[in-house]
Amino acid sequence: MKFAINLPPFADFSSPLFLADLAVEAESAGWDGFFVWDHIMFDPSFFPIADPWVALAAVAARTQRMRLGTMITPIARRRPWVLARQTVSLDRLSQGRLTLGVGLGVPEQWEYGFFGEETDAKVRAEKLDEGLAIITGLWSAQKFSFQGKHYQLKEVVFRPTPVQQPRIPIWVGGYWPRKAPFRRAARFDGVVPGKVEGMLTPEDWREMLAFIASQRKATTPYDAVHGELLPDDSAQARRRVQEFADAGVTWWVQPVDPFSYDNNWEKPWTAAETERMLRLVRQGPPA
Fold first, then answer.
1. Cβ atoms 151, 84 nearer than 8 A
2. CA-to-CA distance for 104 and 79, rounded, in angstroms?
3. Where along the chain do its domains lie?
């Protein structure tokens, strides 16, 4: 099992320099991964927000070991060819430590709707699939063209390639037990699920991974990424982690944000919550 933190680059955490300093602390504390949310605007509270790629570039320049990436990037609101450039540059800057988390993105009423962009989930899913085909095609540094419903590319060659081969790992988000996101996830390198109702259990993971295995053709390693706050008690935390490890989970991602307790995305962000978030990072993963 590997352990990561996932945090919103908002409010007190919206400075790339602050995030870079925090990432140094996280690496020293023993975390294996440092992930940030990818948002243009999160909600009508209008938090200050850092661009994730600028922030991650600062993190990459200051760290040596941790994996880093987004969790998750909503490809439907990005130009895939621009994202292909950004991710290759960051992969090379980090010397091959980037993981790209992708999905539809929420909250769509604000993240998309406030800018007049498509909020329909079916259309965004189509753009996600086309965007993934374009990004992976451009990463190859071979001649590539694309004619889709939403995107069209004349033949181009994108250089350089990522450090990581055959590609930068892609983790796909989705809500279990909806099947379409997990058919998509089976085509890539890992899954970052939530659950339509309630919290994911070890039995959910067993069912989900069995479904992904039934859809998967590749034989390469596959990451199963579980996000949940660890109990404060270290013995309880170890037992909880072991339950999910036994079900096939390979990464435990600790949410570091003010919203995890009550899912109220419009609540004020207080100084006490900033201190709690810093404490979660500094205490490190369970021994």
1. no
2. 14
3. 2-283
pLDDT at residue 41, rounded to an integer:
86
pLDDT in tens, 18-34: 999 999 999 999 999 99
pTM: 0.96
Indicate the fold that domain 2-283 takes in CATH.
TIM Barrel (3.20.20)
Mean pLDDT computed over 47-60: 96
Please give the backbone phi and psi of residue 100, each rounded to the nearest 5 degrees, phi first. Answer: -100, 115
Task: Give the integer Cα–Cα distance in Å for 86 and 143.
Answer: 19
Residues with Cβ within 8 Å of residue 73, at least 6 apart in sequence: 38, 52, 83, 100, 101, 102, 103, 105
203: phi then psi, degrees, rounded to nearest 5: -65, -40
3-state secondary structure of 227: strand
CA distance 281 to 275: 10
The full length of the chain comes to 287
Q: Residue range 221-238: average pLDDT?
A: 93
